[in-house]
Amino acid sequence: MKKYLKIFIPLVFLSLLSFMGYKIVTKINHQKEVAANIKTIPAFKYQNLNGESFSNKNLKMDTPTLFIYFNSECEYCNEEAQMIKEHINAFNPFQLVFVSFEQPTKIASFAKKHNLLNYDNIFLYVTLKLLSLLPLMFSLCLV
Which keywords fit this entry according to its UniProt record (predicted)? Predict the structure, then answer.
């Protein structure tokens, strides 16, 4: 009986050690994959309030970007814009990209209401198709 325990206990220990090593390596690889996905944004194309084109190629490199999809009549969107305005200094290292499918006049009035037009790191864009938001929204949800 002692002979079996001498074999069984080290075997269980090695099995647990191997399993823990596998889980650690798997987690590290997953974190690397997520980090790589965060660095890439799928292609998109919007228009600024003046009708000029804007795409992922126009984003500032090496600057964290926060996409905010909003509707000027949405209560939560208005509250979020107000909170961003109140804590604007915390957002200085980021470029904030506000995107809506509404008319440019509504977007401009939303920006004026929340005083978002006076900052170099806040951008307002129009998408003409709601479907063009889906690939970007889906990729951001995966991260």
Answer: Membrane, Transmembrane, Transmembrane helix
Give the integer Cα–Cα distance in Å for 91 and 81: 12
This model's pTM is above 0.70: no
Q: Write 31-34 long-range contacts (CB < 8 A, 24+).
A: 34/143
97, 65 Cβ separation under 8 angstroms: yes
Q: Answer yes or no: do 13 and 34 share one domain.
A: yes
Strand ranges, E, within 12-140: 45-48, 53-55, 65-69, 95-100, 122-126
Residue-number span of the structural domain to which 70 is assigned? 45-142
Residue 44 to residues 18, 21, 60, 106, Cα–Cα distance (Å): 44, 40, 15, 22
Residues 27-75: pLDDT tens digits?
999 988 887 776 677 788 899 888 899 888 888 888 888 999 999 999 9
Token representation of residue 70: 């909003």
